[in-house]
Amino acid sequence: MAIRSETARRQAVVRPRWTRQRLREHVDAYIFLAPWLIGFLVFTAGPMIGSLALALTDWDLINAPKFIGLRNFPEIVHDDLFWKVLANTAYYTIIGVPIHLFCALLAALALNQRLRWVNYYRTMVYLPSVTPAVASAFLWQWIFNPDFGLANAALVALGLPRSMWIWDPATVKPSLIFMGIRASGRKWSSCSLAYRTSPSSCWRRQGWMALGHGHVFGTLPYHCCPRWSSTR
To answer: 135 partner at 20 to 30 Å CA-CA among 74, 91, 150, 198?
Structure first.
């Protein structure tokens, strides 16, 4: 009986036919994906493969590269700059990433309420994430200017001492984390989409209806936000 049921199930499965319309849909999809794919291959995957290839060579930028295998990697352990870069990366990952996700989720909760002009607020939140990098750099350079910057003007207005911000090694990492909050529009859109498309039964099982917004960060399950995790 088990063999017959398995055979019947396989026969019941109808494989989709490869028609001209289906082929055209696939071609159209790849045409729309082509700009991103080209940018990924040229500006992300290409440099990563090139960096890996250079790590296996001895190259002084003048003579031709010489393949030396893995002999470069033991020298990294004795390089102080490597450990400093590793510490800065760990600092940003452990502290900065959770703060950015927390702010994105908070904005998603706030901007999914029935507010007046909520579409304009959503635009204001998402717009910095598509601002050109050069324009953002000039903007933050003015904000964190130690002489006439907006950040120090706010500190002076509150009666607090001035700061050097990105020009001081002690405050540059918190400043960069703060700069990243402004550009968390993509994370906000992912959290907002997950919040709006998650089934209400899922929220009810996690106590959302009873606990309210104040406890969402302790009750939000990971499986309710698949888009959040996949587009991070």
So the answer is: 91
* Distance of alpha carbon 109 from alpha carbon 105, whole angstroms: 6
Domain carrying residue 41: 18-76
pLDDT beneath 50: ranges in the chain: 201, 204-215, 218-219, 221-232
Q: 202 in helix, strand or coil?
A: helix
Sequential DSSP letters for 43-90: IIIHHHHHHHHHHTEE--SSSPPEE-TTTTHHHHTT-HHHHHHHHHHH
**pLDDT per residue over 163-180, tens digit each?**
999 988 889 999 999 998
- Asked if 137 contacts 128 with a C-beta cutoff of 8 angstroms, the reply is no
Residue 6 domain flag? no
Give the Cα separation of 196 and 198 in Å (integer).
6
> How does pLDDT run across 128-145, given as a tens digit for each residue?
888 888 888 899 999 999
> Looking at the domain assignment, is residue 214 inside a domain?
no
Residue 124 inside a domain? The answer is: no
Phi, psi for residue 174 in degrees, rounded to 5: -60, -35
* Residue 58 bridge partners (DSSP): 66
CA pair distance 232, 203, nearest whole angstrom? 22
Round to whole Å and give the CA distance between 206 and 211.
9
Residue 189 to residue 204: CA distance in whole angstroms: 23
Q: How many domains does the chain have?
A: 1
Is the entire prediction scored with pTM above 0.70?
Answer: no
**Residue 158 pLDDT:** 92
CB 164 within 8 A of CB 158: no
Structure tokens at 187: 């994370």
Residue 180 lies in a domain: no
